[in-house]
Amino acid sequence: MLNFLSFINTYVFGPALPLVMIICGGFFIVRLRGFYIFHPAKVCGALANGGKGEKSSFRALSVALAGTLGVGNIAGVAAAVTAGGAGALFWMWISALCAMALKYAETSLSIRFRGGGCGAFSYISRCFKGGRAARIISSIFAVLCLGASFSIGSVVQINAAAKSLSRVFAIPELVCGALFAAVAAAVVFGGFSRISSVTARLVPPLCAVYIVLCAAMLISGRAYLGGIMRDIFAGAFDLGSAAGGIGGFLLMRSLRFGVARGVLSNEAGCGTSPFAHAEADAPNPAAQGCFGIFEVFCDTVILCTLTGLCTLIFLKQYPECAIFDGIPLSLMVFENSFGCFGGMFLAISTALFALASYLCWAFYGAAALSALTVSPGARKVYLALYCISAFYAAAASSEVMWQLADLSVSAMAMLNVACLCRMSGEVSAYTKEYFT
Predict the structure, then answer these.
(1) What is the value of pTM for the model shown?
(2) Alpha helices in 32-171 (DSSP H)
(3) How many CA atoms, within 13 angstroms, populate the side-chain half-sphere of residue 373?
(4) Which CATH architecture has domain 2-31+52-435?
């Protein structure tokens, strides 16, 4: 089974998914006339009206960010720059522009048609006019999302956090799993309101502290920045670096979970974040779509860039450390600048980012289950199994789980992007109406 999954991920989704994402993202940029590139003030104006309350646009954004921000923004970027060189960062920036268009489309569509279902299911139903094809595609998407919640949302996240805490604090991995399970049990049964309450308090401070520490490292290593920027733009157009860079970005989702297989770092086009954004009391689909754009901006342009620059500064000083990647290399970067405190902070922040993603994916999985059954009992059983999975996740090492994670999310993205492209006319119409 492992060989079969590896073959599909390497030779089918591996080359196809990055190509589809770039082409379709570019298509939406043209269709939307690149409004977020040429008129950023309009996007900021929409963000300024995020509202307050349990179902505000900001609360929905915090849940969506919890699903995208994770160990990939730390360990994944370190792996990308060691694999693709400094030029990898340039291709992350270019690819992020395409990801923003896809994220805007799926987020805004989930608001436009949310009366017809939940999240991605609302526009999938509209895309196929609620017929048999819509029910089949929705069911397939729901099954894939449920599988992804246990692999990506649980096993991959908890495993990375447990190994990080075990390495720095010598906490047994099973104890870490028990702690995650206990927290999840106290939160996920409360639904979107309780999950968003936790993520709204967890994600912004984590991001702020991480940004401050990275900024301190950039200031300390400012003498290297000029050379690094030259390396980024020179390496971007070297065939080896370009291939590694594009692959690094487009494989970032699995890199952030410790495995380089083909999916997006910020989940743009995968159809997961619409579950969170659809809960917002947004006045207009285009307005909420701007929060999707900011989600990609925060995930890739800000956090991934800061991590990449700090890693490159460290490798300039200690090139022999390029043989490492992921969490070990990231720990070296922070410990080099801040000593033991740096390692402790990175381990704790990795665990908290993973916890936020873990909680978010419980909501995604429960929302996907609603497309298969409306039974309250089925939802409770799913959430109970999801919490229990943390025990296995903490000590898991099965390559099959990583392969299943790549396969499920890649298939979700292909289905979702096909629907987005079919709905591009609708997206263009309400975008033009709102911004003009």
Answers:
(1) 0.86
(2) 35-38, 40-47, 57-68, 75-84, 87-112, 120-127, 132-148, 157-169
(3) 10
(4) Up-down Bundle (1.20)
